[in-house]
Every structure is written in structure tokens, then in C-alpha cells.
Amino acid sequence: MALNPLAPITEQIADGVWRHAGDLRHGMNVYLLTGDDGVTVFDGGTRSMTAGVRRAAERLGPIKRLVLGHGHADHRGIAPALGVPVLCHPDERADVEGDGGYHYFTLDRIPYRLPRAVYPTLLKLWDGGPAKVAETVEEGDEIAGFVVQHFPGHAPGQIGLWRERDGVAIVSDTTYFVDSLKFKPVDWANVPNRVFNQDHEQAIASVRKLAALEPRVVAAGHSEPLVGEPAEVRLKLEQAALRG
Question: How far apart are CA 56 and CA 157, in angstroms?
């Protein structure tokens, strides 16, 4: 029997880390991190995922906080309604509490007619709206056993979480494992499309910064994680940066 494409899935991807994938074709990822004080939710998915994220997280423990990888519509969707403190990088606060970065998107430069026409509607559908930020986090801060890394470019205050002991990097949209203009997963890493990036050259530099960590697992905002030996994963990320 085929899976319901709208029913979310929750799967453990590392010690104390669960990927909750929802929305159409499980295309949006939210990560659940367990700790002594409860569950930290990382990244905010889309508005329609709110109830599913809450149910999945509460099976693991009380939800303590939502840390946003960045504030775009498909990453802050659950933030206003989840009912827990919202955290983000200081450079992202204005967009989390504002238009979700829409002011720097250049959707008119999308070369294909269909995505150019539908993206404004999709962004409104995905978005839960502005969220009040309770606290900010910066590079070097510790969250649920991970260290915050700043990966600007796609968004000015985009962050990821890095755990050196097992090489797990949870990176929001630092890299894509999807073709965002054809709405399908791909087998290689990409720099996010420039039409969504606040600073495209900085986005490329952030992929190189991620590669230099030599992760074993790269869990991004969309599609399944990239898993492999550190040298192999680094090469794939460096190739993405070269393609730009």
C-alpha cells in the first residue's frame, strides 16, 4: 500500500536525534533532539506540520524550545503555534519577526514559468507568520549536546548544529539535497538556489565551511540525510561549492 504523501514520518537518524519529515512528499524536515531537560526542536518546517511535530516530540519528552535554523517561510511555519520559546541567531531575528526574508528573494529571476508562478502562493501556504523570538544563540553556543555553527548566505543568521563526537551536522538550508525549482530530491549536494539567497557568495562559503568539518551525517532542511565517510562527504560538499 502506498504511503499517504501528506502523513509525516519520524525516524531516528543518530543518537538522540530524530528526523520528522512532513508536508507534501515528506519534503520538509524538522529535527527532534533529546536531552536531560526535554526535547529541543530544530527548524520549524511548514505551518501544516505543527500538530505532527508536537505529537512526535511529545512521545520523546516535554518540548522545551524551538531553535530556528533560519526564518524563511518553510522553516518558521510551526513557530507561532507550537507554544514554546523560539530561539534564533541575532542576525535572523528581524526576519523571524518580520517577513521571513521575502524582501531579498528574487523570484522573478526563476527561469521556469511554473515555479516562478507558484512560489509566492507556496510561501504563503507554508508560512505560519512572524514569531516572537525569546532568546538568541550564536556560534559556539551549546544546544542539546551540539555546538552552534553560523552558516550565513542563504539567510543572514542561518545556523546549524554540529556534534564532533559522531560527526553529525544538522544544517537547515546550508546545503540542499533537492532541486528546488523542479520540486524533487537529488543524489548530490547543492548550494541553495541564488533566487532565495541573501548573499550567494556567502552561501557558497558556508558550504565550504561545512565541508571542512568533515561530517559523517549531513541532515539538511529538505530530503534525506547525506551519510558517508568523512572524506567522501567532504568531497561532495566541496563539489557543490565549486558548482555554486
Answer: 27
Read off the pLDDT of residues 83-114 as tens digits, 9 standing for 90 and up: 999 999 999 999 999 999 999 999 999 999 99
Closest CA to 89 of 76, 78, 77: 76
* Cα–Cα distance measured from residue 241 to residue 224, given in angstroms and rounded to the nearest whole number: 20
pLDDT band at 1 (very low <50, low <70, confident <90, very high): very low
165: left (phi over 0), alpha (psi -120 to 50) or beta: alpha
Query: Helix and strand tally (H, E) in the chain?
Result: 6, 15
Provide the grid cell at 228.
Answer: 558517508
Say if residues 86 and 131 touch (Cβ distance below 8 Å).
yes
The answer to whether the beta carbons of residues 225 and 11 sit under 8 Å apart is: no
Residue 140 lies in a domain: yes
Supply the range of the domain harboring residue 89: 9-243
User: Taking the mean position of all CA atoms in its chain, how far away is CA 28?
Assistant: 8
For residue 215, report the phi and psi dihedrals to the nearest 5 degrees.
Answer: -70, 160
Number of domains the chain contains: 1
Rounded to whole angstroms, how far apart are CA atoms 223 and 172?
Answer: 11
Mean local confidence (pLDDT), 9-20: 98
User: Over the range 13-31, which residues count as b (16 or more CB within 10 Å of their CB) and which as e?
Assistant: bbebbbbbbbbeebbbbbb
Does a structural domain hold residue 3?
no
Residue 141 sits in a domain whose CATH number is 3.60.15.10
Instruction: Please give the pLDDT value at position 6.
Output: 65
Residue 58 included in any domain: yes
